[in-house]
Design a protein that fits this description.
The protein contains eight helices and eleven strands. By secondary structure, the chain is an alpha+beta fold. It folds into three domains: 71 residues, TATA-Binding Protein; 91 residues, no CATH class; 78 residues.
Length: 309
């Protein structure tokens, strides 16, 4: 250890390091355990679907916390309860209040009287700049119609880590861009043995993003509270495994709160069977609110209809 400037060492004192948050292997785990225990002591419940989400329901109010290491996002319907929670966290851990939500983990939030808009414009521009597509010609669709990617066409990439890094960033971008979910799902199947045809298809997604880097999700203030879902399937979409692809989206009123594109586990012997499996998986999600995406649910609750600013 190096003694800090101005430290008087006339009495041969020794500094003892009790604990450190950063740099230790168990630091994150211990911090999360302590924070979880402190929140549970004041009647917060930890979500079983997402351990980083904590909720508390009172008679006339609701409050939720979303935690990422030492960054905390708080929303609720009672401003007094939020203030009490801030005081508790500041007294226990000495927090810093950054004010209203503007930027969180790459997500940009813009609030108006009409509702809340979530996008990843800065994150999208960083991806385009990193891959040299800031001046590229925009594409109208993220994938060519009828295109089927396989493991046999094309040559293996000399630097597959470039493709893997790009697909990983596109996967995170689907948090606010449901329009690229199907294309990214197709690309993510070839990260182990990526070829030049897969990289060309990934560049097509970048050119599509170039045309609308600021597009995202909008959660209106006045919306009818009605849960509804839509599902579809692409029968025998995979040319190699002959498996179908399920796609669904779930709305709460006019707010899109959950969506997914995923290959089905079992080979469907008919288009009807593929549609039935897609409908079944969508129904399970609709009747299990814990499975809804945490960030999009919190964004919906952050609209003016629910939150007293």
């Amino acid at each position: 250890m190096i003694l800090p400037p101005g430290f008087q060492n006339d009495n041969k004192q020794v500094c003892r390091l009790l604990r450190s948050l950063y740099g230790l292997k168990q630091a994150s785990r211990q911090w999360n355990a302590k924070l979880t225990m402190a929140l549970q002591d004041i009647s917060f419940q930890q979500s079983t679907a997402d351990p980083s989400l904590f909720t508390k329901t009172l008679d006339t109010s609701f409050i939720a916390l979303l935690i990422y290491v030492d960054d905390i996002l708080v929303v609720g319907s009672d401003f007094q309860q939020i203030s009490k929670l801030k005081q508790f966290l500041d007294k226990t851990f000495r927090i810093k209040d950054l004010g209203h939500l503007n930027y969180f983990l790459g997500l940009e939030a813009f609030r108006s009287s009409n509702g809340l808009n979530l996008c990843q414009r800065k994150y999208t521009l960083e991806i385009l700049e990193e891959n040299g597509f800031l001046d590229a010609k925009p594409a109208h669709t993220p994938i060519n119609t009828g295109q089927k990617l396989t493991n046999s066409e094309g040559t293996i990439l000399d630097q597959p880590e470039i493709y893997r890094r790009l697909v990983g960033k596109l996967l995170y971008l689907t948090n606010t861009r449901p329009g690229i979910s199907y294309a990214v799902q197709q690309l993510s199947q070839f990260v182990d043995k990526s070829r030049d045809t897969h990289l060309v298809a990934a560049h097509r997604v970048l050119r599509y993003l170039k045309g609308s880097p600021g597009k995202g999700l909008f959660y209106p203030t006045n919306s009818r509270i009605r849960l509804q879902g839509f599902s579809d399937s692409d029968w025998v979409s995979c040319a190699e495994t002959r498996k179908s692809v399920t796609g669904y989206c779930i709305y709460l009123g006019e707010s899109l709160i959950s969506w997914k594109t995923k290959k089905q586990v079992i080979v469907s012997r008919s288009s009807f069977e593929a549609e039935y499996r897609a409908l079944s998986s969508t129904e399970k999600i609709m009747f299990s609110m814990n499975a809804l995406s945490t960030l999009r649910l919190i964004a919906m609750l952050s609209s003016k209809r629910y939150v007293k600013e």
